[in-house]
Each structure stands twice: as structure tokens, then as C-alpha cells.
Amino acid sequence: MVDADTPDKPVKISAVPATVQGGAWNPNGNAIVFAAATPEDAPPGYDELYSLPFDDVSAKPIRLTANFAGQLRAMALYFTPDGSLIAPAAVGTSGTVIRIALNGKTPPIPINLGTTIVSGLNTNRKQSGWVWLADTGGHSMKLCYAPHLGEPCVALTTPELAPANLRSVEPELVRWKSGKLTIEGLLYLPPDTGSTKVPLIVDVHGGPFGAWENRSDPFADFLIGHGWAVLRPNPRGSSNYGVKFAAANKNDLGGGDYQDVMAGVDYVLAKFPIDPARLALMGYSYGGEMAGFVEGKTDRFKAIISGAPVIDQFSEYGTEHGSWYDRWYFGKPWEHQADAWRQSPLSGAAHAKTPFLILQGQSDTTDPLGQAQEMYRALRQEGVPVELVTYPREDHGPLAIGMLGHPSPEPWHGFDARQRIVRFIENAFASQPSAKPAP
Question: Cβ(190)–Cβ(228) under 8 Å?
């Protein structure tokens, strides 16, 4: 930062704000910590923390979170009296806070706050008290207070927001091998099923640079309430597992990540009371794209639901709002035609067999309407049972959050989508005989 009147002279900042979105001045005002893209090969949006001193104009930024096996969330940063830095982050299926050394030589250390998801962390200027939201799947979110960070949560009184009779379960963290990688996922099993084998819904997250986390989730509760188990895998390319894992599906969409998902299905079928004759898969955005890949690669599922998918990397590249994301994954499609087609679900349409439901916003600028229309036409002409439902005025994000049961501009669209998902899966399962109880 420079003074407007003397642009060549650094300005020393003496007052230190409690928090800065994505950056913070140190207590002496002679250095700033900020978030910026990693220098390593990683999907767009993979950030690290850097420290830049201002008392040495030749100094280079210090990488503070290099090799951190998680995902930084630098919405708010806090310098502490011991000379370290506190920042939100995500590790695996957990959202936490980490303590970071300012010399860049010590790996970040997660702080245990007694819950799987920490959000909204805040304090005062003197750091004489901390508050945060504690969240875990199967439990109501609570507002916590502690005099010092790391001390046990004192739950503060808040209004009850969840319905009185809501059925919710805490997911089980499951891990399986896929090639040389260990893949994690969250498995939700309906309560009180005894030895009866239950149907399984595989739910693939968006992104692909995203991840499922162990938090209270109304959509998971909705699916479980229908007596279905839910598997939410974090295949290669997911966030929260470090830069190498995040980059592991570069130029391989629908390849290794598809194998990761299917290996997870095999794992839970072998370990839990799941009915192999009643499997369904769904996803939105990248999850919808994965649904398209699954359609053309296997007939193990009885129903597939695809929300706002990428179907054809060529037409998607030319009509989406921005192409920077795709350029990192496979480059300009006209320069890498074989790669772009291999990573297009449309390339497998000739092998499709499974009933397919497409849910699409008409005003989607991220994955435009034409993608859904291409898949619909291809499956119709291949003789595959397919339905296409479009929602007026809906862009990519608003339709997704409405479907997942969160407040949205037109919540009736999300309600309609959920009912269609249930009917589509129930109709597909109805023709399948229930599995006999496990011995």
C-alpha cells in the first residue's frame, strides 16, 4: 500500500483491524498476511496464505501453508499474542480452524473445538472470548463460547430452528482404496433397519473442486427419511485433501474419479446392509456431469439424476460464462480434441441404458441449458428412458440451494425438484425385488 501523495513511500499501518476478509496486518503494521493462488499446479481457486513484510522492499512473500493437506478458508484471519495466526480451514470431511506459524517453517496445526464443522469464528480486539457455530451431521447446530480458543464449548441459548420430528442421523466416515489413493466418504444409514438391506443413493458433490463435509444437512435428512442409505464420496479432485489430491483428476474427468466413486460403492456393498439391486446415483453441476459419465459406463444403477450437468466439453466451453476452469482441466478443446471428447459424458451416450432424469435451470450461465438438451436428445434417440425438467429464471447456484432445502429466490422450484427425484427413484426401485435380510 502506498500513500496517494507520495506513491514511492511505503505507509506504515499502526492500527490493526480485528479481521480483514482474505488478509490481515500484523500487530506491528509492518507486514500483511494474505490469501493468493498456490504456485503449484492446482485447480483455480486453490489458495495458500502468504506473509509479506513491508520493512524490506526486496523481500518476497513467505509461503505459510505450503504442503498443507487441507483447504484454506481465509475469510477471517486473527493474529494471537503468541505470535501465530488463526485461520479457518477444511481437512477431509471436517471444517476446522488452524494455528499457523508466521515463519513458514512449521506445518499448520488444527485446533480441536469438539465438533466436525466450525464456522463463523469470531472474537473481540482483546481476544478475551471466542464464539463459533458448531455443526455435526445428525445433531442440531449450536452457538459456542469459550474464553480462550481451544477450551471446551459453552453452548449459548439460541432459538430452535429444526422441525420437532425431523429424522436425522450422524454419518459414518468410510475410507476405501482406489488404485494408489485412499478415498473418503460419508455414509448415512437409516435408523432402525435391523438386518434388512436398504437401497443406496450415491450423491456426488459439485466442483469437482469441492467436498462433502460432516455437517447437518437437510437434503441428507430428506433422503434418509425415505428409507434410503446415502453415500457421499470425495473422489480425486476434491478439495480439503491437499494440492496433489486436488490436481489428481487434471485431464482425467470421468476417469480416475469415476473409478473412485465405483470403488466406494463396492466397499459399502461389502461392509454394510445395502441392497445391490436398488442403487441410484445423483449429483449437481460436476456431480451432474459425473452422473452423465456413469450413464455411459455402467448399468449397475437403476436410476440416475443429473442436475445442471456438463455433457459436451466443446459446446460447454463456447457457451458457459467463463472458460478459465476448463482451460486448467483439459485446455482449449480445439487444441485437445481427443481429450475434450474423452471427458464429455456425451461420448458414452451410445452405451446408455439407465433411466435418466435431468433437472436444469433455464437461465444457468455456468452449465447452460443446451448441455441438458444435448443429453436429452441423445438418450431419446438411443431409446433410453429420459426426462428433462427445466425451471424458468433459475441460474446455477439458486436452483442448487433450493433443491438442497436451503432458502432460495424461488423455493417452489426446489420443492418440485425434490418430489420429482423421489418419484423417479421410487419408480425405478419398484420393479426390483427387495433383497433378503442379511444372514
Answer: yes
Q: Summarize pLDDT for 95-119 with one digit per residue, the tens.
A: 999 999 988 888 899 999 999 999 9
Beta bridge partners of 48: 36
* Residue 63 CB partners (closer than 8 Å, separation 6+): 39, 48, 49, 50, 104
- What the block records as the C-alpha cell of 13 is 499501518
pLDDT digits (tens, 9 = 90+) for 228-241: 999 999 999 999 99
Sign of the Cα torsion 254, 256, 260, 265 reads: positive
Q: What is the pLDDT of residues 248-298, one digit of tens each?
A: 999 999 999 999 999 999 999 999 999 999 999 999 999 999 999 999 999
At 150, which amino acid appears? Answer: G
pTM for the full predicted model: 0.89
DSSP one-letter code for 348? G
CB-based contact 315:371 (threshold 8 Å): yes
How far is 384 from 362, CA to CA, in rounded Å?
Answer: 23
Catalytic positions, written as ranges: 285, 396
| b/e map 57-96, b = 16+ CB within 10 Å | eeeebbbbbbebebbbbbebbbbeeeebbbbbbbbbbbbb
| pLDDT tens for each residue of 299-336 | 999 999 999 999 999 999 999 999 999 999 999 999 99
Amino acid identity at 284: Y
Q: How far apart are CA 153 and CA 245, in angstroms?
A: 33
Long-range CB pairs of 141-149, under 8 A, 24+ apart, other chains included = 141/216, 144/113, 144/115, 149/80, 149/86, 149/97, 149/111, 149/113, 149/123
Q: Locate the DSSP E strands across 104-228.
A: 109-111, 117-123, 130-135, 142-146, 154-156, 172-178, 181-188, 198-204
Cα 66–chain centre separation: 22
